Amino acid sequence: MTDIRSVVRGVGSYLPARALTNADLAQIVDTSDEWIVQRTGIRERHIAADNELTSDLALHAARAALADAGMDAGDIDLIVLATSTPDNTFPATAVSVQAGLGITRGAAFDLQAVCSGFVFAVATADSFLKSGAFKRALVIGAETFSRILDWSDRTTCVLFGDGAGALVLEGVAAQDAGGRGVLTTHLRSDGRHKNKLYVDGGVSSTKTVGFLRMEGREVFRHAVGMITDVIVDAFEATGESAQTIDWFVPHQANRRIIDASAAKLGIASEKVVVTVDRHGNTSAASIPLALATAHADGRIKTGDLVLLEAMGGGFTWGSALIRW
Ligand code: UT7
């Protein structure tokens, strides 16, 4: 069997037009810009319009990624869309994106691993491309978390936002990839922690959508250790290190978790891509949003070694190391 690499061809993102600042939130709940910035680093988040669905955000991001790749939608034969806030219970939001792009071949499906969704989706698409089953994939993270927030709960509503990001991956014979591509992925989950970050409704349990509930301190307590474990796995699998990576693009949940993880791993602060201040925690969308920003502003370039990680509800956590 030919050795295949999943090479990044393009990246794109989308944030809804409406920005909600910390000052705006202080009008809704008992909070302050100072508290939110000091505890999380978040300054504003974006909120989807009433008629804007997760698939609409995803479509914008997918089109931007295709344009960046110089590809047409017809080149894509696989869509893996990570979301915890799908348009409907079914069908998958991915098929709305597929139809919106006019794609009638290949496969499209959703994947649910909450904030780790994008890393899980990269790993999934990478496996399919490496197997030769599909040739070019859109890997999307898209969320409308504003729809599952309890806007009277200050401990959660200040943290999350809406957005989408997408990556185009192409399966290329390893000898033609020039060392580029997804080098390794490491996925973990541990359901014993499922009640620390969850939504208190669902199809089978309450027949309602429910609201996000979180034991923030407990999530924080586990986050850094879980994140650093899967990054050490990635380094051990590849022989790379904190010194050899060019960019660290973590899940954008909280500035303090990002800084503590980078410090524990010995990753220099100038290699860390941080965009959480501009969009808050957008769950599965946060990594591709950060990737798109750092690619567009010229930081991430072809040949750079890019480390992704995420941790979230489940708990789920994972890492991916990519030669861009
Ligand atoms: O992808 C994973 C997603 N989740 C996360 O990343 C969350 C991880 N956890 C965290 O980031 C932090 O735990 C939080 C930012 C959620 C909270 O920070 P903390 O330093 O752990 O605060 P805390 O929960 O210990 O609360 C400290 C105080 C409490 O008041 P008292 O009991 O000390 O009087 C809270 O009621 O801060 C209060 N508080 C707030 N005050 C102003 C909680 N939320 C707010 C708020 N504004 N929005």
TrEMBL record:
Keywords: Acyltransferase, Cytoplasm, Fatty acid biosynthesis, Fatty acid metabolism, Lipid biosynthesis, Lipid metabolism, Multifunctional enzyme, Transferase. Gene3D superfamilies: 3.40.47.10. The keyword Cytoplasm applies. The active site is at C115, H251, N281. Its main location: cytoplasm. GO terms for molecular function: beta-ketoacyl-acyl-carrier-protein synthase III activity. It is found in: Cytoplasm. It holds the Pfam family ACP_syn_III_C. Pathway: Lipid metabolism; fatty acid biosynthesis. InterPro entries: ACP_syn_III_C, ACP_syn_III_N, FabH, Thiolase-like. It comes from the Bacteria. Its EC number is 2.3.1.180. Residues 109-191 form the Beta-ketoacyl-[acyl-carrier-protein] synthase III N-terminal domain. Catalyzes the condensation reaction of fatty acid synthesis by the addition to an acyl acceptor of two carbons from malonyl-ACP. Catalyzes the first condensation reaction which initiates fatty acid synthesis and may therefore play a role in governing the total rate of fatty acid production. Possesses both acetoacetyl-ACP synthase and acetyl transacylase activities. Its substrate specificity determines the biosynthesis of branched-chain and/or straight-chain of fatty acids. Belongs to the thiolase-like superfamily. FabH family. Homodimer. The last Arg residue of the ACP-binding site is essential for the weak association between ACP/AcpP and FabH. This is Beta-ketoacyl-[acyl-carrier-protein] synthase III. It comes from Ancylobacter amanitiformis.
